[in-house]
Design goal:
- By secondary structure, the chain is an alpha/beta fold.
- It has a single domain, classed as Spore Coat Polysaccharide Biosynthesis Protein SpsA, Chain A (Alpha-Beta Complex).
- It is 34% helix and 27% strand.
- The strands form 5 sheets. A 5-stranded mixed beta sheet has the order 5-2-1-6-11. Strands 3-4 form a two-stranded antiparallel sheet.
- A hairpin with a 4-residue loop joins strand 3 (38-43) and strand 4 (48-53).
- The longest helix is centred in the C-terminal third of the chain and has 24 residues, at 211-234.
- It is globular and about 55 Å long.
- The protein starts with a strand and ends with a helix.
């Protein structure tokens, strides 16, 4: 098995998150990193604003052999919303493979904390099937004929993941639209024995991280962000 790991999206807390990615050391892989040249995290409710310039040198401190595409922030600003921005990076990272020979692809955000629950990567050649995506959650029914799916981690065979990214209209809505896109292809998402959570800027000064702490700090970030936004709207 030869794995291509596509790391796609805004850099944010990659320096913390990647420490949990055991697949970096337990598989034969190459990493392809597509991100913006600037990263901004802001939560006025927590009085947090982190703005950073992103360079190849910064990323190669942690992934010295990675293939890296740093995209000008002007492209970011020209795209209408976060859906377009994320899918832009998916497609950009895939284009970097340049016909190299891989059997499987992992697609992940830079700021994802990953917890492996007994997944054996050496069995992927037998366990991972074509026309099926693998992730932390199955597609779920979230409303009247409305489905949703987590889009922070996907795994599949090279051909399936390539088709998944290539055929995806860039404007496809995150979560709901993505779930319907997968269903309309006649595919489904098989749940792996793993968990993910987004690492937010309020984790930066913590010495130890685990899934519970990351989840709690993510909730804190979300509540404070929306509480402040609601207060602004009331005023």
């Amino acid at each position: 098995m030869k794995l291509a790991i596509l790391v796609c999206g805004e850099y944010r807390e990659f320096e913390l998150a990647h420490r949990s990615w055991d697949f970096l050391t337990k598989t034969d892989n190459d990493v392809f990193f597509s991100t913006w040249d600037r990263s901004i995290q802001e939560n006025k409710g927590l009085n947090v604003r982190i703005e950073e310039s992103i360079s190849e040198e910064k990323i190669k401190q942690f992934l010295p052999n990675a293939f890296i595409s740093i995209v000008d922030s002007g492209v970011n600003e020209s795209l209408p919303n976060n859906t377009h921005r994320m899918h832009y990076h998916w497609k950009n990272a895939l284009s970097m493979l340049n016909n190299r020979d891989y059997t499987h692809i992992i697609l992940i955000r830079p700021d994802i904390f990953y917890q492996n629950h007994r997944e054996e990567y050496t069995n992927y050649d037998r366990q991972i099937h074509s026309n099926v995506l693998y992730g932390g959650e199955r597609i779920t029914l979230v409303g009247n004929n409305v489905f949703g799916v987590d889009d922070t981690f996907f795994l599949g065979t090279f051909d399936t993941m390539s088709e998944f990214i290539d055929d995806l209209p860039i404007e496809t809505e995150m979560h709901h639209g993505l779930a319907h896109y997968i269903i309309n292809k006649g595919w489904y998402v098989n749940q792996l024995q793993m968990g993910t959570s987004i690492v937010r800027g309020n984790c930066r000064n913590l010495k130890e991280l685990d899934m519970n702490i990351v989840g709690q700090k993510r909730h804190e970030w979300y509540v404070a962000y929306h509480r402040h936004k609601d207060n602004e709207n009331e005023n």
